[in-house]
Amino acid sequence: PVTSQVKNKAPAEVQITAEQLLREAKERELELLPPPPQQKITDVEELNDYKLRKRKTFEDNIRKNRTVISNWIKYAQWEESLKEIQRARSIYERALDVDYRNVTLWLKYAEMEMKNRQVNHARNIWDRAITTLPRVNQFWYKYTYMEEMLGNVAGSRQVFERWMEWQPEEQAWHSYINFELRYKEVDRARTIYERYILFNALLVIVHPDVKNWIKYARFEEKHSYFAHARKVYERAVEFFGEEHMDEHLYVAFAKFEENQKEFERVRVIYKYALDRIPKQDAQNLFKNYTIFEKKFGDRRGIEDIIVSKRRFQYEEEVKANPHNYDAWFDYLRLVESDADAETVREVYERAIANVPPIQEKRHWKRYIYLWINYALYEELEAKASKRTRQVYQACVELIPHKKFTFAKMWLLYAQFEIRQKNLPLARRALGTSIGKCPKNKLFKGYIELELQLREFDRCRKLYEKFLEFAPENCTSWIKFAELETILGDIDRARAIYELAISQPRLDMPEVLWKSYIDFEIEQEEYEKTRNLYRRLLQRTQHVKVWISFAQFELSAGREESLSRCRQIYEEANKAMRNCEEKEERVMLLESWKNFEEEFGTDTTKERIDKLMPEKIKKRRKLQAEDGSDAGWEEYYDYIFPEDTANQPNLKLLAMAKLWKKQQQESEAAEVDPDKDIDESQS
């Protein structure tokens, strides 16, 4: 047998799914269905035959599935369309035997009776419905509406009363109230409101909602019973108390009083509510209070409400995070600008009670300013020196001095005692600080204090203690020596400098040496200055030291100063020949050249010109951190003539370069002799 082979095995461009095939088949099936034929009934026999067939169809459908209520309703509505009310009623009754909880079935049954003006039958059905299903509000609404449409006001009221016994939802009560208001029965409506609000004594279980009280009060206000309305609001405030306060109640109460032009009562209501309602629940209250003050208050009242609002905001921030010290600062600034001293102290006490949980200085830096601001407030604003002293003492006792301290706090405490003219306490505070937790700042502050008091012996003792604590601090040595210099004790100052430069470890030795040298220059001890330079050069061969030494010799002002200066430069040049930092050697030669240009002769100028280096560009290979090649780098190098003369290889290399250059020039001349002839003729 011959088998057919598929030539193109690629998938089709348009893919058709099984779901699509089924959907298209269903759609075409609906299109092909012919419309049902129209039947015309011409006599009674055909009508009876038609009724028989339809009833048989409906009965068969019901027999197949009795629980499908839609079949019963369609059957009854068909009988109703034929004006067979008794048959339709029988069908509805049979359906109710099957499912009496079906709401739609009751509604359709009652609507059928009402459409056919069978009022008593409809009442009977509604009574059965509300008795069987009393929690279905739709039955009650339909029943009361039917009675009202029939003009049976008493019957409708009776139905409402039966409904209210079941304690329905809020809308049912309002429907009853609106029903009474439609017939101008205000007293009856008030009675319903009272029953609505109160159940026996208090209807707490059913509807303890604020809006129900507000609606009751507005009802009284609408009918011009203002005293009753105020009484309702007062009863509501008393009923809810301080545990279940709601801002909507107070806003409504205040607006009512505002409409009655009772502005003082409005202000009292707002302030009473703002003092007791939680801040996060009083935003609407704040807004309405602000609007009221803008309309009827003065500038002071507006400022008070704005400050009060900001205060509540800060309260929420510090309550959410008690260690948010920035929020405390803002809160304290606000309180200081508006509140009395006791309130400010209370907020300060609350703020400083939030001690950082970790004993690390970075966590205490913001916190300590709370104490500082507290002390400054007590001193400057409250004028309470005794409380200020207590604040400072409590703060320095709280700080863990074994781990860290705050010199600022000790110094502020001492300065406060000095302002109070209590010098012994100031000295005692600073002495205690140095004993517990010595710091450079504390020593400096204490010394500055004694200097201002001209207690120089105390300053000497403090400097001694300071230098025992921090012998590497060059600034302290310099200040100590300067103090002795001011006091005229030159030998003592020189001894201090000698002690300082003999220390094994210093933080800024160059500053110390410079100060010592300047001191000797001021005293015009030039020989001692030279010795100091020589001693310094034994420790370091830095180019700036040589240059400074040379400039000192130049400024000495004697006849041999030029020769001494030139000799220093020569010594420096010899000493720095082996220096790896060629830039420093270049700096020295440039300084020497400037000196020779100003004070030297032609011979010395020519000599220094021969010593100046040649600046050349070089390349070097770079390597990355992992050892791989990173390319080439260009840099500048210096070749000194003195170094070239001492290195024959460099001299040979220079001669080779010169020979190569000469060879290239001669080859160029031999290649183009005609060009030379033409040039000579021209």
TrEMBL record:
Pre-mRNA-splicing factor Syf1/CRNKL1-like C-terminal HAT-repeats domain boundaries: 70-361, 381-534
Transmembrane segments: none
Gene Ontology, cellular component aspect: nuclear speck; post-mRNA release spliceosomal complex; precatalytic spliceosome; Prp19 complex; U2-type catalytic step 2 spliceosome
Keywords: Coiled coil, mRNA processing, mRNA splicing, Nucleus, Phosphoprotein, Repeat, Spliceosome
Keyword field contains Cell inner membrane: no
Family the entry assigns: Belongs to the crooked-neck family.
Protein's recorded name: Crooked neck-like protein 1
Classification of source organism: Eukaryota, Metazoa, Chordata, Craniata, Vertebrata
